[in-house]
């Protein structure tokens, strides 16, 4: 058994995570559904890698994500921090003592469940009553809510990541930061986060919850860490990462630093611009120093990128953007839960199993020690047919990592790619061996090719759960096939129209990430380190002395030199 423990820290990270767990829940349901497509019944995926089995005090068996989710107080919407499985009342009051003065209580009105959640919990209560009372038929006491109404309520009304979550969580999973009823718009830089969290015991409480999940693992293979690093959650993530480094020294951390498009809006003032630039530099420097591999995720405008060629995304909705990023993270996670086979064996359903540590070593442990990876995705993957296969597959893999160079020839680049649910003519799925041959052929005929590429292939496509947003364009068919002509009178399509899609996602270690690194080093030097730097006082108020900033700059400089020894940015200068 090779368990993964997942952490989600921050608002947008939890939006991404909510979609991610919806995919897993959908896979679990389809595997048990006698009427589901057979491709979902033989996944060759061990879901125990991500999930834990348990039992309530009433003896009900549970199957919940091995997850710790952290967000601001009040961020759970209508969901209790205890989840819904374990009826143990509200969580105990925190033992944190940070204030000795008068205390006032602020109680907010309970967040009303949308139509989707009303239907979801209504079904669960009905199933529970049916099980307890032995009821097998009769009239349905609920008012029926049609699927189209549920979908429309989500499209127009998602405020919290719990609004579209269909997953049952363990009571140890959901953690709200006590006393931090902070406006997310103001919780926007490293200093504010560090100040808000100082003096509290939140870090220790989060570590205890993490310990709960880790200690029941037989053989943990790694941590899948998703952090919204656009604001004040970065220092909290750093604290958690430091705790992981102390307690689980040899367990690798795969860190996704995710951002919604809102974090890229140009600041109104020079002061805000300096703060934003310094936050980006400090946050990346601190986070990257505490993981084995870091993957920046989040484009300034996903809707206008080539990654959205077949999508119809509203950048202003975190519900939309996070869905696309979650789909890519799902694809990347498949090798971690494939059943490992012998050197000559080949499964009919999946191939290319790898642990987190193996993927980390592939990408960061080769000739050069680069630990910043680029994420590319094709959503959906066009049918793998015809003589232009290399263009069909590789051309549609587009970056979800910001600030990277395009059309770079890097002879030392290495990649790990996951392809699943690939379609042939029409909606016919290819067998594993054929997909492997076609992908290898695509790389053989490509103009530029990596020094090494690890390939994972699965027959199982990405299932589209009901609460998935309507982000598919009008050329995407029911099974993710690309239609020759657009569907008239339909600008976007959702879960009622598209039931599954073929996906591909790739992590690559390449010098194309140099602009991302150079921008952060340049900001650190210009706004924080240089004589008379406009942000010197600001970062000092964040708790960083000049020598600490210089150490960060030296680490960033080494990252750049690793990828380009001739880079002028790697030289020290004021």
Structure description:
This protein is an alpha/beta fold and 574 residues long. It is 34% helix and 14% strand. It has 14 helices and 16 strands. It has helices at 11-32, 115-133, 147-157, 190-197, 202-215, 233-247, 270-288, 318-337, 356-364, 389-394, 432-445, 514-529, 536-541, 546-563; strands at 3-9, 51-55, 61-65, 67-72, 174-177, 220-228, 253-258, 293-297, 350-351, 374-378, 398-399, 414-420, 452-458, 462-463, 500-501, 503-509. Strands 5-4-1-6-7-8 form a 6-stranded parallel beta sheet, with helices on both faces. The chain has a 6-stranded mixed beta sheet with strand order 9-13-12-16-10-11, with helices on both faces. The protein has a two-stranded antiparallel ribbon with strand order 2-3. Strand 2 (51-55) and strand 3 (61-65) form a beta hairpin. Helix 2 crosses helix 3, helix 7 (270-288) packs across helix 12 (514-529) and helix 12 (514-529) runs antiparallel to helix 14 (546-563). The longest helix is centred in the N-terminal third of the chain and has 22 residues, at 11-32. The chain is globular. Mean pLDDT is 88; it is low at 88-99 and 128-142.
